[in-house]
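Lab notebook page, bench 4
Experiment: in silico fold of construct C2
Operator: M.H.
Input chain length: 430 residues
Purpose: comparison with the prior construct
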Amino acid sequence: MLYERFEHNINNLTGGFSLSKIAIAVSGGSDSIALLYLADIWAKKNNIELFVISVDHNLRDQSKQEIAYIQNISNNLDRKHYSLSFDHQNNFSNFQERARKGRYDLMTSLCKELDVLVLLTAHHEDDYVENFCLRLERNSGIFGLSNSNINWHNNTQIIRPLFNIPKSELVDYLVTHNIKWFEDESNLSTKYRRNAIRQKLVKQEDYIKDDIIAQQIKANELLENKFKPELIAAIAESTKIFEYGFAFLDPTKFIKLSQEVRIQLINFLLIMISGQCCSARFYSVEPILKLITQGLDFKNTLHGCVIKRMQDKLLIYREFGKKLPESKILVEKSVIWDNRFCIKTTHNIENCEITYLSPENYKIIKEKLDLDTLKKLSCKNHNAILFTLPVIQILEKVIAIPHISYYDNDIKGSEVTFVPNFISRFTHFY
């Protein structure tokens, strides 16, 4: 039965951990509506609080009707429903990718507010087949062709318990139980490459789909048995990641790695140091890879980071360019700033905010700063990195830079921890 397969999947993917809360992303489509009913059964069976989250992209009149329908289902199941809204700002350039990121940003931010660690999504077997075809067209490597049923976004675990269940079975489940769903008319448009591939796959025989799934399994096995262990070893042996939010990579060890692992290692560091949620495109990373192998010193920018080669060292630190980090009011005991640093304090000081060091404030306090440790650790790149660190200020006056133990106020109980969006159990900080 469908539920037994779903239950087996989700129990394995959650690793047997005792969860008290879980969230689920639900649109009006057959996939997510079926997932909602299956997850509700599982959550009740395991005494887990289930939160239902929908995102309106404000593109179709029908979306309001779909949100209302999901709200009604949630009420009938006695589950809390949250409707979020994505502001597309009338910018439709690269819209599908932007909307996907915006959707996950909204949902995972809500998960953090609700203290939910796991978000379920309705990616099913047909989605995996389509993804494989798309990535094959783009000449993706093994890491790109492989699929994971567990991913991370903003430190929220994204789980896909329908990964081996075809869409047809989900539709049959809804029809059998007389459950309504909505069809998104945009899925019929061939202006999106995914839709064109989907329509092509529908016309082909089942053995084509089976062959693609077999290739997918082979890619996953190659990743698990060869490239992932190499990547883990490379992170441990050739990188140093510092609490100041910068990293060093050993170029001599790096060039000995396979091309697949080089790409993933650079992306791992770029995501971590920039505080972004997704990786850079290969066409952006490729020129950097070539520069590193040439052995010449260089300084370049990529994916919100500065990459600087200094003989036998490659330094990566946060780039503060056109888009500066948003200041945060320190109204609670802890605040996440720039998606990278967690600032904690035991003090209650009014009008206190976390922000970056401005050139004007730097001139005022320059003579009072002790940068010797940062200077040594960063190989004399301390001035650039100083401006990427969080400072605490009141009414535009800097009262603390905890990283370098600078305090101009009774706020010495402050602590700063480097907690980038992308956290790995293989990460080591210095």
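Observations: The chain has three domains: 2-204, 229-318, 328-418. Residues 423-430 have pLDDT under 50 and may be disordered.
Next step: discuss at group meeting.
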